[in-house]
Amino acid sequence: MAVELKETIDKRREEIMDACEKLYETKGFHSITIKDISTETSFSRPSIYNYFQTKEEIFLGILTREYLKWNEALREIIDGGKKLDADNLAKAIAKTMEDRKTLLKISAMNLYEIEDNSRLELLAEFKSAFKESVDIFEECLAKNLEGIDKKKCEQIRYAFFPYMYGIYPYVYPTDKQMEAMDQVKLSYAKTTIYNMSYDFLKLIFE
């Protein structure tokens, strides 16, 4: 009975997060309301509060889910059996980043506010998923890069994880940002999540 109840709760939480993520594709974080999310689901506004106390907690749930998906993709690199050289490892990890647009967007734009307005237990769940990402990322490096030690793995991780937060704003500048750059003649090269990830990883793997 308890298992069935948990499955029902998880399913309802997923539906709420799916609706919020859909809205986030076209609306800004601050524009999205619980009422908007309710309209996209089968839940009333009061019902949503049974599963999330704040809008930020919904976004934190989405971000936790995103990291868990990334962890699965990173684990596939480790379980692939074939040892990769630096170039192919950079390509493999960059490939895992391609589908993590939502992860990169939330992390770049709203992470601090989301963490600050979420319950500690939910924040701990997120940090657990994030820690797993750190561990699996370093495991990827240790398995594939010849002669790498733990200190070097940590140095690479400390370089790449903060770098990740800058990927989304660079790949997806707003029209207003582009107009401002044009006015001051600031050059901008169009790129992709994959290319930004690959180019940086290849650089720090050398």
TrEMBL record:
Question: Please, which domain of life does this record's source organism belong to?
Answer: Bacteria
**Record carries keyword Chloroplast:** no
HTH tetR-type domain residues: 10-70
The alphabetical list of record keywords is: DNA-binding
A GO molecular function annotation here is: DNA binding
Q: Which residues form the signal peptide?
A: none
Q: Where along the sequence lies the DNA-binding region? A: 33-52
The record's section on InterPro entries has:
Homeodomain-like_sf, HTH-type_Tx_Regulator, HTH_TetR, TetR_C_34
Q: What is this protein called in UniProt? A: Transcriptional regulator, TetR family
Source organism of the structure:
Pseudobutyrivibrio ruminis DSM 9787
